[in-house]
Design goal:
- By secondary structure, this protein is of the alpha+beta class.
- The chain has a single domain, classed as Ribosomal protein L22/L17 (Ribosomal Protein L22, Chain A, Alpha-Beta Complex).
- Helix content is about 25%, strand content about 35%.
- The protein contains 3 helices and 5 strands; from the N terminus they run βαααββββ.
- The strands form 2 sheets. A 3-stranded antiparallel β-sheet has the order 1-3-2. A two-stranded antiparallel sheet has the order 4-5.
- A hairpin with a 5-residue loop joins β4 and β5.
- α2 runs antiparallel to α3.
- It comes from Aspidosperma cruentum.
- One of its GO terms (cellular component) is chloroplast.
- The globular domain of the protein is located near the polypeptide exit tunnel on the outside of the subunit, while an extended beta-hairpin is found that lines the wall of the exit tunnel in the center of the 70S ribosome.
Length: about 160
Amino acid sequence: MLKKTEKKTEVYALGQHISMSADKARRVIDQIRGRSYEETLMILELMPYRACYPIFKLVYSAAANASYNMASNEANLVISKAEVNKGTTINKFKPRARGRSYPIKKPTCHITIVMKDISLDEKYVEIDSLKKPKWKKKYTDMAYHDMYGGVWDKK
């Protein structure tokens, strides 16, 4: 009996103990979920948040994993799953006046980026943003008549 071998279509990159709040990282992750690889890199480079740099590194790492493990092209990669989980909180104590102490809590988070190669998956044959329009423009110039009888061109 022969087993049917399935080709792996997903790769992931995992960043653990990143020193930032999970809510701040989620704000960026929600913008890139479901987008293509090139579009994600452009978005992350232009967003003004501190969370963009570690997420950029993880997306780049996941694409490198895809090209090395599956020999896939970067143009075919789509972020299929991106999630942020809460990590451990680092507690420090800062000395204050009269011998008291004040706790400083530094939150961490774990970020997981899963990328899918759409050329290997039968479900995704073409992405709508990468398709060329099927219709062609028949009329290049249009002439309009105004109410006084003159004709003017609209381009």
